[in-house]
């Protein structure tokens, strides 16, 4: 008997339409070989033991962090451009 690991994150939509994110971790027990004991040439899973964790809040926090980072990069670029213009204006005397 061979074993395999599962470590995955996936999105599910509940019957009420609510979206949730889950992290699944576990272990499969297989019978057969890659060249196969069955007609498809694939291993056959005998059982799976594992757990799912609700990681919805973590995913929301990651998305908020990503959005905030994008906003800060944009703001930083605008401030850099403003500083360049202001520096140039301070070096040049006013002409009337």
Structure overview:
The protein has 96 residues and is of the alpha+beta class. 38% of the residues lie in helices and 38% in strands. The protein has 1 helix and 3 strands; from the N terminus they run βββα. A 3-stranded antiparallel beta sheet has the order 1-2-3. The longest helix has 36 residues. The chain is elongated and about 85 Å long. The relative contact order is 0.14. The model has no long low-confidence stretch (mean pLDDT 86).
Question: What is shown here, in short?
Answer:
The chain has 96 residues and is an alpha+beta fold. It has 1 helix and 3 strands; from the N terminus they run βββα. It has a 3-stranded antiparallel β-sheet.
Count of individual beta strands: 3
Instruction: Please give the order of strands in the largest beta sheet.
Output: 1-2-3
Rg for CA atoms: 27 Å
Structural category is alpha+beta
User: Ranges with pLDDT <50 over ≥5 residues?
Assistant: none
Proportion in β-strands: 35-45%
Mean pLDDT across residues = 86
Compute the separation of the termini in Å. Answer: 89 Å
Number of helical runs? 1
Q: What is the H/E string?
A: EEEH
Shape: elongated
Percent of residues in helical segments?
25-40%
The main pleated sheet reads as: 3 strands, antiparallel
What is the chains' assembly state?
A: single chain
